[in-house]
Amino acid sequence: MKLLLADAGHCLSLALAREANRRRDTQLTIVEETQVSAEALAEARPDALVVPPLSAPSRLAPAEVMAHVEAVDANLALCREYDVPLIWCVSDELYEDGGDGPLDEHVIPAPRDDSLKRLIATGDRVRECLPRHLIVRLGPLFALGGAHAWLPELLDTLLAGDEVRAAEDIILCPTSVDAVAMALIGMMQQQGCGADAWGAYHLAGTEPISPYTFASVVRTYLTTHLERQERDATLGTLHALHHHHDRPLRRVLNCRRVLDVFGIHQKPWRLELSRMLDDWCLLHDKESAT
């Protein structure tokens, strides 16, 4: 299987590259920008074009969101012309108002924010114009490296002794980029074997929590590691933010369909986070020793 991957510096792109390197059944061609060229698509002749998500779109400038939308629209036109499936990953923030229960795939987001509306309009065009597509909605991604990775900035802030400000009244599903990469390749391998199961899917970690709790777990892990190494360090403190005073905003994705169709289980974010932090500590210890 051959995949063409856009946005080389994205944390999901790096995770897909790592996963492909561990396998013999997947080849990647990676381009630097989100928008691919006709020449790159024609030369790669991929089984699908993969576009990583625009992380935290609600907090970006409208011009940044529009640039992403225009790139995806251009990719959509090329995929139609060359008959190539499109895998477009999108942020759970499109569900601006959340939901009382887990959000199913058939529930199309209806945000009020104009920038988010542009992303929804592009999703509508993908569904209308390209039958062979996967729109994959993800929780907030975490990784040790790459753009939009969440963890590096959090670790740097804590180690610098600065305050970490995180929402306590937003409930979401932190999502490991490594788990997403493994799942996407698995889904496309099954598509290549005749699954013909296109459409929208949710991929996220288990155990919904708040960003504040996530940051607290990271801080606790770091504290334990530093104490074990008998190293003195004053980690930054945590400050809880409250944006929704009446009741918490729940943005929890129901990932049952990806299990029913492809047999993919969601990985617990705590296990994925622990593994990543173990790797980070090992690397950090080696750098400190040199």
UniProtKB/TrEMBL annotation:
InterPro entries: dTDP_dehydrorham_reduct, NAD(P)-bd_dom_sf, RmlD-like-bd. It holds the Pfam family RmlD_sub_bind. GO terms for molecular function: dTDP-4-dehydrorhamnose reductase activity. It is an enzyme of class 1 (oxidoreductase). Pathway: Carbohydrate biosynthesis; dTDP-L-rhamnose biosynthesis. Its EC number is 1.1.1.133. Binds 1 Mg(2+) ion per monomer. Its cofactor is Mg(2+). Keywords: NADP, Oxidoreductase. It catalyses: dTDP-beta-L-rhamnose + NADP(+) = dTDP-4-dehydro-beta-L-rhamnose + NADPH + H(+). Residues 68-279 form the RmlD-like substrate binding domain. GO terms for cellular component: cytosol. One of its GO terms (biological process) is dTDP-rhamnose biosynthetic process. Catalyzes the reduction of dTDP-6-deoxy-L-lyxo-4-hexulose to yield dTDP-L-rhamnose. PANTHER family: DTDP-4-DEHYDRORHAMNOSE REDUCTASE, METHIONINE ADENOSYLTRANSFERASE 2 SUBUNIT BETA. Belongs to the dTDP-4-dehydrorhamnose reductase family. This is dTDP-4-dehydrorhamnose reductase. The lineage of its organism: Bacteria, Pseudomonadati, Pseudomonadota, Gammaproteobacteria, Oceanospirillales.
